[in-house]
Amino acid sequence: MKSSAFIRLVAVLMALVSTAVQAWSPVATTPVTVASVGAIHLIARQLTGTTTYPTIVLAGTGRPTSTPTLSAHPGAWTCASGVNSWTCQRALPVGTVPDDTLDLSWTLSGTVAHLDSLKSSAATWTFYLSAQTPSSTLGGLNNYSILGLKSVSISNRTNVSPGAIGSSSSVILGTDDTTGDIESGGSVSMSDRTLVKGSIVYGSTITEGNNVVITGTATRGTVSIPALSTPTCTPGTVDKNITSGTVALAPGAYHNVTVSSGATLTLSPGTYQLLSLVVQAGGFITANATGAGTTVLATGSMNIGDRSVVSLTTGSVASNMHWTYLGTGTFQVATNVTMNGWLSAPLGTIDVASQSRINGAIQAQSVILEPQVYGVYVGVADFPPVLSGAPIDTGSVSVQWKFQAAATDPQGSTLTWKLMRAPTGATVSTAGLVTWTPTTSQTAEFDLSACDSLGVCAEMGWNVQVNTSLPVITSTPPTTGKEAVAYAYTVTATDANGYTLHYLAGALPTGMTFDTTAHIFAWTPSFTQAGSYALSVQVSDGHADTAKQSWTLVVADSNTPPVITSTAPTTGKEAIAYTGSSRFRVGKILT
Prior knowledge:
Among the domains are: 32-130; 141-220, no CATH class; 240-358, no CATH class; 386-467, Immunoglobulins (Immunoglobulin-like). 0% of the residues lie in helices and 47% in strands. It has no helices and 51 strands. A hairpin with a 5-residue loop joins strand 39 and strand 40. The radius of gyration is 41 Å and the shape is elongated. 35% of the residues are buried.
């Protein structure tokens, strides 16, 4: 991390020091008008690790009638007045660390003067001036999409833009996070590639990783975070278990309310006072939050299970739907949940698990957002695109490989496709078609993203194994046969890559079989099956590489012997004539 978040975020120098609230700014060449009596705040910003404490020089124009006096540190500053200029200088106190503030006041005998520059004798330090300590400007609770009085901790690849984040103590952002304005009475910590679409006010320190972007300003000052109210809740004594179907529950006091997987609970405008609310994995809640809105209070526990959906009826808005946990534990929103409404835990923690989508606000003592939580809060959701498609995981050298990805955006935005990682030569079209022609054997890694107009993205990744050698069929099939004579062919094949081979026969004549384990064609043609038959076998290595063998089998006629169809008498009697007749069927006569 490095403590230089706003070196590149300088805006405009202060004007009228005694009256205006300004952002921290380095003094440049533009003069700053100061009153005869006023105060400034000097902030030391160390750029490199050093124990050198340089001399600080303030220089101005506009001749005062006497030598300027910097009274905050008597004896520390040496000042002089010239014909139309003045300077004051002092050594930076030993032990100063980055973000230390020297609160200085001064008295100038003249009515007006200008502060033209602030210089340091060591390039390892930079200094900033402000007329007054900046203060937070967001104000009421409705302006914070995420508010953690004690802390806000947001894991990697979470998107809460343009929602604002507030905390009295600490805000921690993970890698590739996107947020709106940030206000922290203590520290702000940003990991690599954090994008802040707004400004930051912090009370003590600010640190940032690589490639952090802050579109506004970063200022050190006083942050006043509003308190969270704790409403009264008196649970009832009757449990409600929704085990199947759709069940409507009227506003009122209940004990434990449980929604089972696949079941749906519907809520009406009004207040629900509960001991606990548990939505099991795959459960549903549909709330009508029109009019005065709907409030659900729970003193014991509030948990929303994996893959649950908490939706609002047409005409409802998220700010009218309140889910409030009044205990000191954790209000848990599990993985891949879609939830609408304002989530509150004035005495506890709210933990939203990975890949959940929140349309509303999250306000608690502590807020934890795990990786890839999405939502643009305070009533307007911007959910990420949904990607689909299954790319083939194998390819061959010099053979074009392609994959048509598909995506839908919940907001209907036009999507932009980009290959975040791909082998040389791979491209993606504006319609999401990925094409690539491998030139060597390799394992190629792909990461494909689709982003909406606000920069909210979804990604999918896969590998492609490229082979240089196809399977080779080494056996030769017999191409002739004869009726009533057994036909057999054992297929043999090799693969230079050493992959396990799989055998598949094409269409077979009646009675012929193919053993996929022994790789044997077997058949004894009947006396009516003379003719020509097109046969084939395909051998695959399991990586999209195949070899195919085709041939024509000619089955010849066979001479069919005659068949006696009569039965001879086996008994006779004296003086009685023995007679019988013979019958036979002539077989096939070949010429």
